[in-house]
Amino acid sequence: MTGLSLTNTQLYLDGVSVTFDGFRALNNLSLAVEAGEMRAVIGPNGAGKTTMMDVITGRTRPDTGDVFFGGMVDLTILDEAEIAALGIGRKFQKPTVFESHTVADNICLALKDERTPFSALFGARNRIARERIDAVLARVRLLDHRSRPAAELSHGQKQWLEIGMLLAQDPKLLLVDEPVAGMTDAETEDTAVLLRDIARDRSVVVVEHDMAFVRALDCKVTVLHEGSVLAEGSIDAVSADERVVEVYLGR
Amino acid sequence: MRMGFIDRSGAVFLALVGLAALLVPAANLLLPETSALHVPTYAVSLMGKYLAYALLALSLDLVWGYCGILSLGHGAFFALGGYAMGMHLMRQIGPRGVYGHPVLPDFMVFLNWKELPWYWHGFDWFPFAALMVLAVPGLLAFAFGWLAFRSRVTGVYLSIITQAMTFALMLAFFRNDMGLGGNNGLTDFKDLLGFPVQAQGTRVALFVLTALALALGYVVARHMVTSTYGKVLVAIRDAEARTRFLGYRVESFKLVAFTVSAMMAGVAGALYVPQVGIINPSEFSPANSIEAVIWVAVGGRGTLVGAALGAVVVNFSKTWLTGALPELWLFALGALFVVVTLYLPKGIVGTLAGLAARRRTRHAADAGVAPQAAE
Ligand SMILES: Nc1ncnc2c1ncn2[C@@H]1O[C@H](COP(=O)(O)OP(=O)(O)OP(=O)(O)O)[C@@H](O)[C@H]1O
Ligand SMILES: [Mg+2]
Predict the structure, then answer these.
(1) Could you tell me the domains of chain A?
(2) Per the count of CB atoms within 10 A, which of A127, A235, B5, B357 is most buried?
(3) Bridge partners of A204?
């Protein structure tokens, strides 16, 4: 990489289309997220929000279109592990943690470090400092639960653990799919604060249906509908947009 | 290397294996045949066979219990290790075969072959044969795993192709023109490293070696599963996609486990062959691999110790039952599998460990309550 990218764009999607058995899940989708920007993505069920994350993280290959990271790196030719290594972390829509591992081990496995079988067998991976794990656990308020199996956590705690795993990866871009689904109002508020805090030094894309939460994120909002961008702007601007009200908010 | 990766059940297991390696030879060699505790030589080899199976079960548990790869073809790696050892034992026969040919094994003379096929060269030298015991199963597992894991074949599909692999090998080894003895396999062994394989001392030594191999296999597997590597394996087992998005190359992790596991199975096969005195293509039979899965399930998947225990318990019952009521064995095995799946899904060791953990928490709870009650 030359580092000569002209813009400050962290993530750039242009004309991306994905078809599943003839159904267009993404339709000529274009989106740009700046470095250090927080972006909320909303839209009705089936709008293609999760599919967009699948494309960015290498799980789904687009039929057409460009996906670039950091201005230079073409994500469409890389696989999941390579994309993760570039510094893109992802939280799944359905919270996915390693249930039979302890909370601390979940973070330990996510921590940025070598990821080869060799290092995991004999090397650096076995000497991860406890402080690094605890620093992350403190941030997602799970320090008191560090030795419990992740399976025992409440739904909301699992969501936070997964966010903690993202933090441990130390990514440049976080993709967060429905982080507050199933959370209490208090937990939802805390999550908004946490994500805003995280977004201070990295880019974050948050997909969420909870409008109060999206408002609390206080960032630019992109509305997806039928696989493409319907509207983009401040939460007040898109809330006032007639088309958005019709397809999404007015349901 | 980290010490202290052997837990209590592991320590008990190693102690038991060590004790067996001491007491069984003593009971065979030192006690008079009239003694009630005397262990006859045939029984020493029988127990040696169980321990070889235990090592096979251990290798299977490494991939199935910890990484979720349900291999229904591990018998193939076991048989390949066995064949490598069998080839060495055949070459050791030298001119003492029935036909008295100085180089060719009997079955080749019988087939009118004039010279040794290229792949038989080197097997007369023990270190080479020993290397092949590891390399042949290891390379097959590596090639197979490289193709399967890279193409992301998982679950039932992976199980089916492992089963197909061992079935295909069985058919191949049945053919005479493979040059490996056809359906008779390799047998009539004379000696190993200069010791007659039938002799009492050799049989005892083979038993002890098998016990040591099992202990070493356990230590290697235990080191693997308690390192971060093992945690990644379990992560793959529980949530493969998540592990990929964390940046782990899932296929590399699986490949390492599968290859190491196949090499362990190969060692087990190599120790098995001189103790039973024969290796033939039926060792590749799909049913053998499935039986090994049952041993692991019975003993406790994902516990290592349980896998080894399951192999010994099931095979001991098999010997006993096939002696008493031969027709019943297959039904008994089937019933055992059903009962374990329904009532002991964690197997013997998994269930015991669960009970122990529950008792500990109850004790802890009692201890926590007591001071308050005193206030
Ligand atoms: N692997 C797949 N195979 C076939 N169809 C798929 C696949 N993945 C997604 N789809 C379809 O693509 C459309 C977009 O799905 P996607 O999961 O991206 O929606 P979403 O915006 O995340 O919705 P939600 O708010 O319900 O999570 C849906 O109609 C879905 O059924
Ligand atoms: Mg979705």
Answers:
(1) 9-97+170-249 (3.40.50.300), 100-152 (no CATH)
(2) A235
(3) A38, A174
Pick from A16, A24, A31, A50 the residue to mutate for probing ligand 1's pocket: most ligand atoms within 8 Å of its CB. Answer: A50
Q: How large a percentage of chain B has pLDDT more than 70?
A: 96
Say which DSSP state A218 is in: -
Task: Name which residue sits closest to atom 31 of ligand 1, judged by CA.
Answer: A46
- Residue closest via CA to ligand 1's atom 11 equals A25
Residue B50 to residue B349: CA distance in whole angstroms: 18
The answer to whether the Cβ–Cβ distance between B242 and A84 falls below 8 Å is: no
ipTM: 0.89
Q: How far apart are CA A101 and CA B145, in angstroms?
A: 26
Query: Chain B residues with CB inside 8 Å of A128's CB?
Result: 228
Instruction: Inform me whether the pLDDT recorded for B77 exceeds 80.
Output: yes
What average pLDDT does range B203-220 have in this prediction? 97
Tell me if A213 sits within 8 A of A180, measured CB to CB. yes
| Alpha-carbon distances of B223 from B76, B263, B329, rounded to whole Å | 25, 16, 36
What are the backbone angles phi and psi of residue A42, rounded to the nearest 5°? Answer: -125, 170
Q: Provide CB contacts within 8 A for B288, sequence distance 6+.
A: B75, B78, B79, B166, B282
Q: What is the pLDDT of residue A244?
A: 86
- When CB atoms are compared, the residue of B2, B231, B252 closest to A109 is B231
* pTM for this predicted structure: 0.91
Model pLDDT, residue B365: 63
Length of chain B: 375
Partner A, chain B 231-250, Cβ-Cβ below 8 Å: 231-232, 234-235, 238-239, 241-250
DSSP state of A47: S
Testing the interface with B: which of A82, A93, A100 to mutate, by most B Cβ within 10 A? A100
Q: Which residues pair with A18 in a beta bridge?
A: A26
In order along chain A (251 residues), what is the average pLDDT of each group of 10 residues? 58 94 93 93 93 95 94 91 94 91 95 89 82 93 94 92 93 93 89 91 92 92 94 91 82 55
Q: Quick one: pLDDT at residue A7?
A: 63
In contact, A219 and A198? CB cutoff 8 Å: no
Between strands A88-91 and A173-177, the pairing is parallel
Q: What is the mean pLDDT of chain B?
A: 92
Residues of B in contact with A122 (CB under 8 A): 1, 227
pLDDT of residue B364: 66
Which amino acid, one-letter code, is at A221? V
